[in-house]
Give the backbone structure.
Amino acid sequence: MKKDLLMWDETIFRDPEVLEIDYVPEQFEFRDTQMRELAFQIRPGLRGGRPLNTVCKGLPGTGKTTSVKKLFTEIEETTKKLVPVYINCQIDNTKFAIISQIYKKLAGHLPPASGTSFKQVFDAIARILIKDEIVLLVALDDANYLLYENEINKVLYTLLRSHETYEGTRIGVIIIISDLDIDISRAVDARVASVFLPTEIDFPPYGDEEVREIMKARARQGLYQGVLSEEMLELVVEQTLKSGDLRVGIDLLKRSALAAESEARRSIERDDVCKAYAISKYLHLAGTVKTLKDEERQILKVLAERSTRENEMNAGDVFRSLKELTPIGYTRFYEIIRKMDVMRLVNLHYRDGKGRTRIITLRYEPEKVLESLA
């Protein structure tokens, strides 16, 4: 039977952009509660006042960044008097770099690369805000990167106490963070805490049916009808839930479709999804490892090194070997292991014998984990 092949100039992609992990969909499902809370927090800024400060907290791939970007797009379409600035703190993680990005948003270009002091740049920002009667709303994504070298205090102090030096400036901050252990309110010093006072918005992991509906919507918008069968959709959903990260599923759709198209086929087959998942699954690993603190990274490294010799690890044995490297109590050690289980880096289960033994297994190949930690 002749296969239904694509012609050389045909494609199975209706809209490739929809299958990019940083795409902000027009219809953003299952985060209505969080979006309403965010809208409430910024409402004073729409009226010329200072927006309320907010912390958006949840595991990677739970819609935090998309929610904020969606809100920022709506603000920009509504008013020029409230200016939202999104900062990726993985890239810009110093006080000067962040202030430079704010200046760029307001002035249309970055400040001079040399010969310009931080004070000169912020003076210029304040003048623009006061002259044009602009309220500033700054989102600091992956703000855990600012905890190192105490940058979080420097940045928040500059922004939130600016009105004391520059009368008339009104600035609000949204913190986006993927480390569930970090309490930003406690991480900042007293000078910042007294003016920060944020509301925390929780972003829980998506449920099975929510992941299914999101994947179905992305496939419907990004691919032509018939490209992804119900059976293949279920396989994509299954693999997405296994990783616990929606971004893995979106990347999986894209790579599966590219594989089918490279073979000139009009539909995605099981082999396309399985081969694509072998690559896509590491998106979650890489993104999650970036959120870990030094102590947690050290424990994950020990687990990965042991996993090259043994698949299943006794938690007590791991703890004893770890104590030779670093002073850590068992309670803290077990808290970190449970966190890694929630983050889908390890599996933690129990085995009955002489008491209940805690067994740890890695979810990824140890070589890939070590590579992500390098």
